[in-house]
Structures are given as structure tokens and as C-alpha cells.
């Protein structure tokens, strides 16, 4: 396991550098495309022709979404750059999370049955907290609760939030029960794990 974790650490370090270089290159490329679109570069120049032939087809899916949402086509390169940077951050965060979970799992499995029980309980509470976060974020961006990507969060979190809504009133239009549930899950996890490890 130690060798695998070392390889994973090296992979994460290499990807971090690669994503940083890629972000720099994409910043330059999308900045040029943005300058062509906003006429800061002559639209008949060689650079503009290159941008229209090679960069614009890559940005076309993002441009369609931006226009459908009411934005300007000139903003598409900036949105694409933001999406690429966000994707890199998500990949690195997920790899770091997987690495930490593998390290914790190795230690807990060596601790015996109590360690395995603590690991399973910890994972269960983490899944619930992730479901709460995804549910809240999906409500901000107005994703349908019946979407196949979001439905599981409602299935997992509604049994927690429904009783809290009866006790905790909304503050104006803001439902604070997900925040209360998030912190309550952390407290409950600490209590359960503390009871098992004693």
C-alpha cells in the first residue's frame, strides 16, 4: 500500500504541474480568442483566422450554453477557461481525497475490527455530507431534483431534513436546515466514533 500511495503522490504532483502549465496555455489561447471576438485584434489578421478555425470549434459547446443562458458570445472564451480551471481543481481534489481515504483505510484495517467499523461509519457520514452539499449547490443552479445526477442526494438527505424543517423555521426565503444538518452530522459522527473507540 505504501508503494501505491507513493506512486499516487507522484501522479498528483505531476498532474498539478501539468494542469498549471495547461491553465497558462489556455489562458493565452482563450485571451487571444476573446480579443478577436471583441475586435481588439483585427478580425482579418492571420491570428484572427487561426482563432476562428481552431479555437472557436473548441469553444462552440460552451458558447451555445452561454447564449442560451442570455450571455454574450464574446464571454464564451472566459467561461471555457473558467470551466477548464475548475475541472483541473476538481480532478486534483478528487485524487487528493482518494489518496487520503486510501491512507486512512490502510491504517484502520490494520487496527482490526474496531478500525474497520470506524472507517465504515466515517465513510457513511461523509457520503451524507457530500449529498447535502450537492443538494444545496444544485438548488442554487436550479438543477431539477428529479435529474438522475441529483435524485440520490434527495433520497439520502430528505429523511434528515424533513424533521429539522418542522423544528427550525426558514429565515426569510433561506432554508438553513442543510447547514444545521451538516454540523449535526459532524457532531453525531464524533459521538458514534467516540463510543466505538472507547
Structure description:
The chain has 198 residues and is mainly alpha-helical. It has two domains: 1-110, no CATH class; 112-198, no CATH class. It contains six helices and no strands. It has helices at residues 2-37, 46-68, 76-110, 113-140, 151-167, 177-197. It is flat and about 75 Å long. The model has no long low-confidence stretch (mean pLDDT 88).
In short:
This protein is an all-alpha fold and about 200 residues long.
Topology:
Blueprint: H1 2-37, H2 46-68, H3 76-110, H4 113-140, H5 151-167, H6 177-197
What is the molecular shape? flat
Number of β-strand runs: 0
Q: How many DSSP helices? A: 6
Strand content: under 5%
- The helix fraction, in percent, is over 70%
The whole-angstrom Rg is 23 Å
Task: Please provide the ordered H/E string of secondary-structure elements.
Answer: HHHHHH
What structural class do the secondary elements suggest? mainly alpha
Average residue pLDDT: 88
End-to-end Cα distance: 28 Å
Question: What attributes does this structure have?
Answer:
198 residues; 2 domains; mainly alpha
Amino acid at each position: 500500500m505504501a508503494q501505491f500511495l507513493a506512486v499516487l503522490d507522484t501522479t498528483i504532483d505531476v498532474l498539478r504541474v501539468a494542469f498549471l502549465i495547461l491553465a497558462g496555455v489556455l489562458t493565452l489561447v482563450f485571451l487571444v480568442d476573446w480579443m478577436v471576438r471583441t475586435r481588439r485584434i483585427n478580425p482579418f489578421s492571420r491570428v484572427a483566422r487561426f482563432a476562428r478555425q481552431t479555437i472557436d470549434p473548441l469553444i462552440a459547446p460552451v458558447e451555445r450554453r452561454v447564449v442560451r443562458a442570455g450571455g454574450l458570445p464574446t464571454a464564451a472564451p472566459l467561461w471555457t477557461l473558467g470551466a477548464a480551471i475548475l475541472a483541473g481543481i476538481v480532478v486534483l481534489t478528487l485524487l487528493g481525497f482518494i489518496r487520503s481515504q486510501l491512507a486512512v483505510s490502510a491504517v484502520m484495517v490494520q487496527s482490526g475490527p474496531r478500525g474497520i467499523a470506524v472507517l465504515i461509519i466515517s465513510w457513511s457520514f461523509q457520503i451524507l455530507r457530500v449529498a447535502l452539499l450537492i443538494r444545496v449547490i444544485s438548488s442554487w443552479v436550479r438543477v431539477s431534483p428529479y435529474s438522475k445526477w441529483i435524485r440520490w442526494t434527495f433520497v439520502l438527505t430528505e429523511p434528515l431534513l424533513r424533521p429539522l424543517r418542522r423544528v427550525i423555521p426558514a429565515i426569510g426565503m433561506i432554508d438553513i436546515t442543510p447547514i444545521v444538518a451538516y454540523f449535526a452530522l459532524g457532531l453525531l459522527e464524533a459521538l458514534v466514533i467516540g463510543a466505538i473507540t472507547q
